[in-house]
């Protein structure tokens, strides 16, 4: 039998806090680890996600950074504004969060939607971003098939949050389909069973609407305005876009570094935390 994977065993022995604070009037859930006097790092999950996406990365990063992971606006246990969510709304909430914790400038690393939001933050508010990591990031293209798949899986998981529907949504993220990901599934199932979450998911899925997505997409001019040192991190088995798209994204960002992690899907930070943490820290620490 393969070793059982548990969110708690990933965090066991890690000095961290879970809490809530008000960010722009929104009750916001966070995990924090590391000395508050060290440089700040914020980790941003993907669409429909939550802080547990980064449980395997907190300990390694807390050695060097005051590390924050948040449930983004409308996600997880963070407040829901009750309207379709576009990138500008996530960016405004992120800035409010940084202000609430007294951080003027942070390293920002985002996966999928989190990468899209991180890139937009770096474009519009360069004074708030130290170094930038775009991890299988969204925002550079609109693939109708991928967009339909995300909506179908996500709405199935919240409309009828059975073990099977939530597990299907989780497995879609991963390269290794043989694992059951029980603890991550249980965590997400609890979130998706919250009253009103099906309505919240429709707001989260706004960026999969072709018209809304089009006005939020980032193009060469946008990426070209990024001044923060940037790592674009892709994977061999990303379900949203292949390595070519990651390389194209990196080519639009001045001086960006591009790396590919093998045998990973959309969550390399979870699927291969050892390789991810080493590469991520090498870049964030100036490598």
Automatic annotation (TrEMBL):
All copies of domain AB hydrolase-1, residue ranges: 39-273
Nucleotide-binding listed as a keyword: no
SUPFAM superfamilies reported for this sequence: alpha/beta-Hydrolases
UniProt-listed GO biological process terms: acylglycerol catabolic process
Any Gene Ontology CC annotation: membrane
Classification via Pfam families: Abhydrolase_1
Domain of life where this protein originates: Bacteria
GO MF terms, alphabetically ordered: monoacylglycerol lipase activity
InterPro entries named in the record: AB_hydrolase_1, AB_hydrolase_fold, AB_hydrolase_sf
Annotated keywords: Hydrolase
This protein's record includes keyword Transmembrane helix: no
PANTHER family linked to this entry: HYDROLASE, PUTATIVE (AFU_ORTHOLOGUE AFUA_2G14860)-RELATED (PTHR43798:SF33), MONOACYLGLYCEROL LIPASE (PTHR43798)
Name of the protein this chain belongs to: 2-hydroxy-6-ketonona-2,4-dienedioic acid hydrolase
């Amino acid at each position: 039998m393969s070793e059982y994977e548990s969110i708690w065993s990933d965090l066991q022995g890690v000095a961290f806090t879970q809490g809530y604070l008000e960010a722009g009037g929104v009750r916001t859930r966070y995990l924090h680890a590391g000395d508050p006097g060290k440089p700040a790092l914020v980790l941003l999950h993907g669409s429909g996600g939550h802080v547990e996406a980064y449980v395997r990365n907190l300990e390694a990063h807390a050695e060097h950074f005051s590390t924050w992971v948040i449930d983004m606006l409308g996600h997880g246990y963070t407040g829901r504004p009750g309207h379709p969510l576009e990138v500008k709304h996530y960016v405004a909430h992120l800035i409010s969060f940084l202000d609430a914790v007294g951080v003027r400038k942070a390293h920002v690393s985002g996966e999928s939607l989190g990468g899209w939001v991180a890139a937009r933050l770096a474009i519009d508010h360069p004074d708030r971003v130290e170094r930038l990591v775009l991890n299988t990031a969204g925002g550079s293209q609109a693939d109708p098939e991928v967009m339909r798949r995300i909506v179908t899986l996500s709405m199935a998981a919240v409309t009828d949050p059975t073990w099977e529907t939530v597990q299907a949504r989780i497995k879609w993220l991963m390269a290794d389909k043989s694992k059951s990901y029980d603890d991550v599934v249980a965590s997400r199932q609890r979130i998706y069973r919250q009253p009103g979450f099906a309505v919240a998911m429709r707001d989260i899925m706004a960026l999969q609407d072709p018209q809304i997505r089009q006005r939020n997409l980032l193009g060469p001019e946008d990426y070209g305005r990024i001044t923060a040192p940037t790592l674009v991190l892709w994977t061999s088995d990303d379900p949203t876009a292949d390595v070519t798209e990651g390389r194209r994204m990196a080519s639009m960002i001045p001086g960006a570094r591009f790396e590919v992690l093998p045998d990973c899907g959309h969550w390399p930070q979870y699927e291969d935390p050892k390789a991810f943490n080493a590469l991520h820290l090498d870049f964030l620490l100036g490598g």
